Amino acid sequence: MENNNQSPPTTSAASSSPSTDSTRNGEDFGVSSTSSTNSQVQEEETAAAEEEAEGNGLRYPELIQQRTSLSYNAYSMVTENAHDVVGRMRGDSLSCFVVILAYWFFVSMTMIMGVYGPASLLLGPYSSILIKPNSFFVEYVKIAEIHEAANGVMLYGFHKDPPLDVVTSWSETHKTTLFSRNHKEWIYFLNEGSQVNVSYDVNSPSSSSLVFVIAQGSEGLNQWLEDPSYPNSTLLWQIIRGSGLIQQDILTSSNYYVAIGNLNAEAVEVQLNMRLKTYLYNTTGAYYQCGLTESGCSFKLSFTGGHNALLTSPAPTPGRGNNESHVNLSYGPRWVTYVVGIAIQVE
């Protein structure tokens, strides 16, 4: 009875074995199927590539080599273009640096040789010239005599602008004979507020006239000399004959030339009686003063600014025909400004 109620063990084992084999076979089937599919795709791609190669008259390995060559050439082109761009950028940077450096050099030379270059000054009597250079570019102001006639010229130094409150007047008489197509001139430095008064007497057998002018600066005088009959190149232009009076107010501080010209074919004699009233700068507040000698005078400027120089000439000497003083004015460059400027450009 006991044996009839027990299930045979072999039956269970036998029934379970096929299930396990079925699962394992299923797994092997899946792997095998995937590999087969990949292999089939590769074969199809290879076949397509071979067909493309045959269509182009190439063998399959040659097609692969051609594609590889095209890829390499494209990479080489991109690399070369990148190198060209970098090279152009470096070239542009160098060009920009050279341009900036050349520009600063040009500015430096313009300041040293042009704006603050040496100048020869012809001073009339009672000249009072305020010199206000930019202390950022100029370290000192120097004057030196060109002729011994510069005796009496003074250089003063101030911490600030001196007042223009000293008024002085003097008279001069000039009698001369002007030949045909000739002229005569006298120079004065006149500050704002000055005044020129002239009485004249022209003596000519044929009642010839002369041209009387007051020209501002050498440029105005040269323009008048180029065309003496043109009146608009000077501060004052007037035809004079016989006797008369002329008065001219000065509105701008500058050098002025009082001149007469003879446009006639004959010589003409003339006498000018000039009375000049001028304003001078007050020198009582000067902390530096130097009388011009052979060694010259040098006035150092502060880098922070505020320091000004004043150049003066003496009063006219009675009985002396020429009361002009000839001096040389020069500026010492502040080299640290130019060196630092170049260093900044280099950086």
From TrEMBL:
Look up the domain of life of the source.
Eukaryota
Q: Which residues form the E3 ubiquitin-protein ligase APD1-4 N-terminal domain?
A: 152-221
Entry keyword Kinase: no
Record keywords: Membrane, Metal-binding, Transmembrane, Transmembrane helix, Zinc, Zinc-finger
Annotated Acidic residues bias: 42-54
Region described as Disordered: spans on this chain: 1-60
Residue intervals of the E3 ubiquitin-protein ligase APD1-4 middle domain? 246-344
Q: Which InterPro entries match?
A: APD1-4_M (IPR032010), APD1-4_N (IPR032008)
Where does the record place Low complexity bias? 7-23, 31-41
Give the residue spans that cross the bilayer: 94-116
Give the protein name, as stated in the record.
E3 ubiquitin-protein ligase APD2-like isoform X2
